[in-house]
Amino acid sequence: MVYLDHAATTPVRPEVLADLTDGFGVLGNASSLHAAGRQARRVVEEARETVADALGCTPHEVVFTSGGTEADNLAVKGLYWARNAQDPARRRILVSAVEHHAVLDPARWMADHQGAVVEELPVDACGRLSPETLRAAIERDPADVALVSVMWANNEVGTVQPVAELAAVAAEYGIWFHTDAVQAVGAEEVDFAASGVSALSLTGHKLGGPVGVGALLLARGVDPVPMLHGGGQERDIRSGTLTTPLLRGFATAVRLAVAERAEHTAHVAALRDELVAAVRAAVPDVRVNGHPTERLAGIANLGFPGCEGDALLMLLDARGICCSAGSACTAGVAQASHVLLAMGADPDTAREALRFSLGRDSTADDVKALAEAIGPAVERAREARARRRS
Amino acid sequence: MTLRVLAAMSGGVDSAVAAARAVEAGHDVTGVHLALSANPQSYRTGARGCCTVEDSRDARRAADVIGIPFYVWDMAEEFDRDVVQDFVAEYAAGRTPNPCLRCNEKIKFQAVLERALALGFDAVCTGHHVRLDNGRLRRSVDRAKDQSYVLAVLTREQIAHAMFPLGDCTKAEVRAEAARRGLAVADKPDSHDICFIADGDTSGFLGRRLGTAPGPIVDETGAVVGQHNGAHTFTVGQRRGLNLSGAPNRRYVLSIEPVSNTVTVGPREALAVDRIVGERPVWSGCEPPQEWTPFTVQLRAHGEVYPCRARQHEGRLEILLDEPATGVARGQAAVLYDGDVVMGSATIDATSRAQRTVASQNTQ
To answer: Which InterPro entries does this one have (chain A) (predicted)?
Structure first.
């Protein structure tokens, strides 16, 4: 199998697998007061320190979650509720139009059910939100903004946002700034303190850790209203029995991903360039979506004129090549990417896109396999769409 | 010969077993669920049909168990245009369409088949209960489940790329086989209603699309005997729902005249017709007969068959029934058989009685 979908999920690293295998054999609830509990608690706190150390925050600022979606929901809903409770005038949630659905949908839900007002801020044709756009949006009424949420790097096209600049704008007005850094950790230099953000989401399975575990980093004094109530774990912000073995594996994955970031990005960037060149050789009119320089090293989002992405995906899948055509609705119907639409694509053009994403174990052979398959696949997909339109 | 087969999987038991049989026959099979509504909840909420999220999931699970790749194809635009809007327009024109037939003709064996062929597939496989016999459609061995009537609209070219693995067994056998294969849909209830009408209330659905348009109900002499709220809510042969007070005898809808918005009623005898003209004839089983040729004809889904003679004349199908039939509605298909093999099909456009013309003949 040629796996070119590492942005969806990437293999668990052997070191992490060893942690998990060991960890699941050990008894103990980190909240218990006896020896077994203390042993588990020690593992959890070491994991917390490891994550904090890798990401430039203090251990106290790490709240473990079940993953990126929970972290994003906790940030958007919890921070809105907290801010709005302090000052009921603060009802606006400002998000970029290219956020992951784990941010976009909670924000829209807050508008539909909780009286929030959501503004989806426009991005340029490369998918970047400019600090000026954010400033103008805030300036319309700085006193009514509850929260700003702008992702660190986009999961579909790989565009990296000027997060520190954006966070600085929000900070000028004393507004909390959350960033979804699920795709960024291990790919970009992510330093929580230096970035100036108030809250940051990350997840394990995008960087070689297990699925089902992640974290929300929260600056001191930035305390969301909890979504999950119960045993009071994680400073009462996120109740639920701490998943000791998962946290240990997660911490190992974060530590290694951050430590190896430079060589990793050099590896995938070289493959990405090869991939784009190889596809372009077979399909000269291919479009490269996203930002030419401010982008993740491992993602190539390509538009194939005259093709439907889902047809192309199926044809590549039949050749053993895994890639992504964006998100699907609950019934499984491929949707035109809201990210590409926000970048100015029309729906037909947006449906022409496929995302190829590279990871630690990607090789030149993977790229070669794609290079061989893509030409004939595009030809067939074009024929299929032409017939559909006729 | 190994073919690349696209198995249309509705999420029901028939299409799941059909796909499994295609695999077993040695073909390279890919499962596809057709999403027929842009918003899956809009057509059917809380009920089982061909458009729900649950059906999509059932189809996916069946594909997993069978061990074939699975995708969802978005056919919502085509389905709305060629089936739903056509359905509404046909009723508005005073006809009684069969949307399942239309879906087979325009979606499964046109839009889907063409996309499949372009993408490198050789055939489309479905769970219809029908046999293929030397390139001809033949009734299923399960006469009660036979679907040759709603497939008779297919051309020879379409049939050449169709695969119907279930025609040689009964529905009971299909369910038993599904259970044996570990398919969870083995006991899933059959779908009966029109999949895009959520609650089975066809007249309510048409009312929302077409609005109400009060008009007269007249008898054969033209005398007004009642009022209706929209001619499109009636079907030729219908007796219920006429709300005619003081009628001495049971009366039936004889014809529907959309332009004047008039529904004509009369006694059951007046429903009897023995001449039928069909448009857009398709001859998949034989060459178009220029001379009067004996066949049997079926005039509605699961309806009885009537001995007849038929010919193609000036591009239309003409049928003379040996004995009169009742409840023959414009818009339904007239399907000609030789024994249990489909010879041809056309959309009923006009009906008449040898001595007496039924009004619908003149509603062009």
So the answer is: Aminotrans_V_dom, Cysteine_dSase, PyrdxlP-dep_Trfase, PyrdxlP-dep_Trfase_major, PyrdxlP-dep_Trfase_small
Contact B30 A331 (CB under 8 A): no
Task: Tell me if the pTM is above 0.80.
Answer: yes
Query: How far is residue B87's CA from residue B95's CA, in Å, rounded to a whole number?
Result: 9
Chain B: nearest CA to A387, how far in angstroms? 7
CA distances to A224, B108, B336 from B102, rounded to whole Å, are: 55, 9, 18
Shortest CA distance to B335 belongs to which of B275, B283, B273, B272?
Answer: B283
Residue of A314, A321, A351 to mutate when probing chain B, most B C-beta within 10 A: A314
Q: Does A176 have pLDDT greater than 90?
A: yes
Q: Do B72 and A380 touch (CB under 8 A)?
A: no
Q: Please report, for the domain that includes residue B354, its CATH number.
A: 2.40.30.10
What pLDDT was estimated at residue B204?
85
Question: A234 and A266 share a domain?
Answer: no
Domain count, chain A: 2
Q: Is A1 on the interface with B (CB under 8 A)?
A: no
Q: How far is B12 from chain A (nearest CA, A)?
A: 15
Distance from the A321 Cα atom to the nearest Cα atom in chain B, whole angstroms:
13
- Interchain proximity B115–A384, CB inside 8 Å: yes
Of all helices (H) and strands (E), which one includes residue B70? Answer: strand B70-74
d(CA A62, CA A39): 20
Q: Give the domain range for residue A381.
A: 261-389
- Tally C-beta pairs within 8 A across A and B: 54
Select from B232, B247, B268 the last residue of a domain.
B268
Q: Does A371 touch chain B (CB under 8 A)?
A: no
A348 touches chain B (CB under 8 A): no
Task: CATH number of the domain at A319, please.
Answer: 3.90.1150.10
Helices (H), chain A: 14-23, 35-55, 68-73, 79-86, 101-113, 131-139, 163-172, 192-195, 244-259, 261-282, 309-318, 338-342, 347-350, 364-389
Here the CATH number for the domain that contains residue A126 is 3.40.640.10
Structural domain for B157, as ranges: 4-187
Given a cut of 80, whether residue A9 has pLDDT beyond it is yes
Q: Which range is least confidently modeled, A41-45, A245-249, B47-51, B273-277?
A: B47-51
More confident residue, A290 or B48: A290
Task: Indicate if B21 and B55 belong to the same structural domain.
Answer: yes
Q: Give residue ranges of B with CB < 8 Å to any A CB.
A: 30, 33, 35, 40, 52-53, 56, 60, 69, 71-74, 76, 111, 114-115, 118-120
Split into its structural domains, chain B has a count of: 3
Whether residue A19 is found in the same domain as residue A137: yes
Q: Is the pLDDT of residue A208 over 90?
A: yes
Residues B162 and B14 in one domain: yes
Instruction: State whether B75 and B134 are in the same domain.
Output: yes
Interface contact flag, B33 A332, Cβ < 8 Å: yes
Tell me which of A195, A227, A259 is where a domain ends. A259
Is A329 at the interface with chain B, CB within 8 A? yes
How many other CB atoms are found less than 10 A from the CB of residue A376? Answer: 13
Give the mean model confidence (pLDDT) for residues B268-274.
89
CA distance B161 to chain A (A): 16
**Where is B216: in which H helix or E strand?**
strand B215-218
**B229 and B348 share one domain:** no
Residue A95 lies in a domain: yes
Are residues B339 and B228 part of one domain?
no
Sign of the alpha-carbon torsion through A372, A374, A378, A381: positive
pLDDT band at B237 (very low <50, low <70, confident <90, very high): confident
Best of B29, B119, B195 to disrupt the A interface (most A CBs within 10 Å) is B119
Q: Is the pLDDT of residue B243 over 60?
A: yes
Tell me whether residue A127 is in a domain: yes
